[in-house]
């Protein structure tokens, strides 16, 4: 942190001397950023701005941030946004730096001056090129969290518009308390994407497939039953033949009947096993193939808005003051 503070203090010294220690000049009626702001509010904001500038000069960035935030309650002047961005840049909070840099350019170079306005635009342009612009929306009852490594970022379904670091993300969602399978999202530098997160109830396979497996198992088992009945009839024929000859040793004809009966019996047992396995598989498939919520990334047309990025700290800049 100290390595970043020294060059900052050097670059800000002249700006503080030239601007922060001077009283705020009179307001011009045509200044759009001053409309609706009372003289009392302007005075309070100017005093807090000067206090923040002195703290920023002394590299007391946390306290400077507090002064600028307080000043914005009185007057949302672009110069206050700009100076707040400079303070947060040294606190390694780049997402807010980008947000406030964007806010500082709302009225072009009028309130900032040409040099600072160009610096803000360059910072914004660089961050947008290095990161991906993402806009997501989802339906009511859906709670979505964006995960990257160990970082979790809740998504507000009504409006989520961010600049994010390139890389792989995971969308974790629940719908009315029911978990939804995770969905991967890969972002590239400079990419602009807009998605509507749709939650649909879907099956893994066509609905008829598990029923077909289940039905085939039943059909095979029924076939096994018929074979089993045929084997029973053959055994009964064998027994009747032995009884008819008074318990004699079976001849070739009776032996053939017994052999056929045993074969049919073995086939029926195998058929029962196959049919039972198919039936059990069908039941499992019916359970696995039940309707389950699935997340769908539906592309939308148009450009996404930008609110918060993730970027590296260490950007240099010039302290801003009021311009009326």
UniProtKB/TrEMBL annotation:
Which domain of life does the UniProt lineage start with?
Bacteria
Q: Which residues form the signal peptide?
A: 1-20
Keywords, alphabetical: Membrane, Signal, Transmembrane, Transmembrane helix
**InterPro entries from the entry?**
TPR-like_helical_dom_sf
Residue stretches spanning the membrane: 205-227, 266-288, 300-322
Task: Answer whether the UniProt record assigns the keyword ATP-binding to this protein.
Answer: no
What is this protein called in UniProt?
A: PEGA domain-containing protein
Species the sequence originates in: Stigmatella aurantiaca
């Amino acid at each position: 942190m100290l390595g970043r503070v020294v060059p900052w203090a050097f670059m800000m010294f002249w700006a503080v001397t030239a601007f922060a220690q001077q009283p705020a000049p009179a307001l011009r009626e045509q200044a759009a950023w001053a409309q609706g702001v009372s003289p009392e509010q302007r005075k309070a904001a100017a005093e807090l701005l000067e206090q923040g500038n002195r703290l920023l000069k002394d590299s007391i960035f946390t306290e400077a941030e507090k002064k600028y935030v307080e000043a914005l309650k009185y007057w949302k002047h672009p110069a206050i946004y700009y100076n707040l961005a400079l303070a947060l840049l040294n606190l390694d909070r780049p997402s807010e730096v980008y947000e406030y840099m964007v806010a500082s350019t709302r009225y072009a170079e009028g309130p900032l001056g040409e040099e600072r306005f160009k610096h803000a635009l360059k910072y914004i342009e660089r961050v947008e090129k290095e990161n991906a612009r993402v806009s997501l929306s989802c339906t009511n009852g859906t709670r979505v969290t964006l995960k990257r490594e160990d970082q979790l970022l809740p998504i507000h379904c009504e409006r989520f518009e961010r600049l994010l670091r390139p890389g792989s993300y995971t969308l974790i969602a629940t719908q009315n308390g029911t978990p939804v399978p995770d969905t991967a999202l890969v972002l590239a530098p400079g990419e602009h994407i807009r998605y509507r997160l749709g939650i649909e109830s879907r099956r893994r396979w066509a609905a008829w497939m598990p029923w077909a497996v289940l039905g085939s198992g039943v059909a095979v088992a029924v076939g096994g039953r018929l074979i089993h009945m045929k084997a029973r009839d053959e055994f009964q024929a064998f027994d009747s033949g032995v009884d008819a000859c008074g318990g004699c040793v079976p001849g070739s004809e009776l032996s053939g009947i017994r052999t056929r009966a045993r074969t049919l019996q073995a086939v029926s047992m195998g058929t029962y096993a196959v049919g039972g396995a198919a039936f059990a598989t069908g039941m499992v498939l019916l359970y696995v193939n039940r309707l389950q919520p699935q997340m769908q990334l539906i592309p939308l047309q148009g450009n996404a808005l930008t609110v918060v990025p993730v970027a590296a700290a260490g950007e240099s800049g010039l302290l801003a003051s009021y311009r009326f």
